[in-house]
Amino acid sequence: MLGAVAFGLLPSAAYAAPSVTEIEKQIDEAWQKLEPAIENYNKVHNELAKNQKRADSLNRKIVPLALQVEVSLGEVGDMASYFYMNGRASEFGSLLNAKSPDQFLYQLLTLEQISTSQRAKIAGVAKQKDKYAAQKAELDKLIVTLKDQDAALAKQKKSIQAEMDRLQRLRIQAYGTSTVGGALRIGVCPAVLPTGKRAIAVRKACSMIGRSYVWGANGPSTFDCSGLTQYAWAAAGVSLAHYTGDQYKETSYVSRASMQPGDLVFFYGDRHHVGIYVGNGLMVHAPHSGDRVRMAYIGNMPISGSGTRSPL
User: Fold this and answer.
1) 176, 194, 212: which is the final residue of a domain?
2) pLDDT tens string 215-232
């Protein structure tokens, strides 16, 4: 993927230096190939963390169950040792010394019930332990795969960062500045002030304007696109994953006409970019490498199908 991105931006001595418009177009095309790779890293890293948490939870259930089985087996062993040491004569002697037929029957039934109850107890606990252990075994396999993927993607970080640095050099060449596309604030932020959790989320997003874009970052000093929306809504007590694909699934569709400040807007067919709506057709988002968290019009990029979503 990175090779394809780099190939599309190689300068050629046979042509005049590209114009600002041409450079911006090349940067945009390259970024559309690069950002999905970044969000894929976020996806794998997020899945790894979730599954490790699930495995730890299962293990916390397995340990006491295993101990229960061990203790129960120990109790059975103690009973067996008692009968062995005292001989079966002691057992039958106890029964034969009963003072009445009813007491004899009661003692006989009690011994049987203790045995049956103990076996059922051990079997039930062992079955539950085996169920959790089987689930954890599957998770452990998945975690190994995810760790391999996570490590492989982490190795790409140097290459991805080098590509980002190259895009930034082109950007500076085109604009002579590290911030692109005009002022970071293009109006009052939030443009429309909501209430409740929405107010907290949009105020937090607006307060992050000017922070640098760093891929894989979710605050408080640097952000990528899904890291910013996660951070803003976390301030309002709403948990979102650090991955655009999961954030899309964690939210519900609202029509563009019904959007409220705090809603999320997803862009492009694969929804690899997201911003937080702040009213009047404006959003706050973390655009791309070399840029900073800023305001923008949501109509500047193609909104994906069903891409206007509410976290509430």
Assistant:
1) 176
2) 889 999 999 999 999 999
